Amino acid sequence: MEQESLAFSSHSGASTSTATVDLEQEDLAAMENDSSPELGGDDDGVQRAAELLPMPPRQSSRYKGVVPQPNGRWGAQIYERHARVWLGTFADEEAAARAYDVAALRFRGREAVTNRAVAEGASTGELAFLVAHSKAEIVDMLRKHTYDDELQQGLRRGARAQPTPPWARELLFEKAVTPSDVGKLNRLVVPKQQAEKHFPFPLRRSTDEATGKGVLLNFEDGDGKVWRFRYSYWNSSQSYVLTKGWSRFVREKGLRPGDTVAFSRSVCGTDKHLLIDCKKMHRNMPEPGAIAAARVVKLFGVDIAGEKRPPQR
DNA sequence: ATTTGTGTTGAG
DNA sequence: TCAACACAAATG
């Protein structure tokens, strides 16, 4: 259901057939459809009648990628590798221009020349949405005039249905956890530079710490589950830390020294909440205690480990 | 009967 | 690359 096929016109088309090619993820199939241009007196000169009827000269559009249609409507098109990609027809010029802009952003990236002011034609969220879809999908949305809906729905997904899609996340930083980060200290040391750069409040080193509370921050994990940690600054060690709630996270995720925790931020228009994910260094390696537990179960045929075994993932 | 969008050309 | 123009293919 991911693959759409769009028709493209062959540039040096000697063949009279319309080439249909699949737009995959990123690439438009290259068609080297070359042959000698048809020569020879193909047709006579039967082309006079039309000239006499002064069709109101179709005025060209002031927008890039927009072309007038005979019926007064507007078409949008963009070129890719010598081939035209038709983006559909629209009632008004602006809608067509908008379609071109969207396509240009998807095909040529952030720096693409568009019709809208260079400043803000696309939010970070929209850019992410675009990149998360194939060119064919975007073109299809444009032609069906469903782009705006899909975009909104896509951005919703991040704020509503729990798991924020990968494309709606912006990585802030990662840290390989140390033994003490996953030990009994119930705290994660957040690299100072990263903390000051990415985490909410410029946590006052005396104020907030003096009161000893810091701030509570919510983090969504890969499964959409929300974790709440206390984030504060410890004067004693001159470091930023995540404390309350951290040990439970470590336990539930089975974090071990050397594993990595990644912090990112939702890129959706509104609430740019924080996200946390962990990358286990050795995927299939059972936890230290797991082996013993498994043996016990096997030996005695009793699920004595059932209660104690922490949930995986 | 209309509309879409492809074939095609020539300018930049 | 890009749009103008003509008109065949696609649609209702």
From TrEMBL:
Protein name from the UniProt record: AP2/ERF and B3 domain-containing protein
Low complexity: compositionally biased ranges: 1-20
Record flagged with keyword Transit peptide: no
Domain TF-B3 intervals: 173-280
Residues covered by region (Disordered): 1-48
Annotated ranges, domain AP2/ERF: 62-117
Molecular function in Gene Ontology: DNA binding; DNA-binding transcription factor activity
Gene Ontology CC entries for this record: nucleus
Keyword set, alphabetical order: DNA-binding, Nucleus, Transcription, Transcription regulation
Lineage: Eukaryota, Viridiplantae, Streptophyta, Embryophyta, Tracheophyta
Keyword Transcription annotated: yes
Localisation: Nucleus
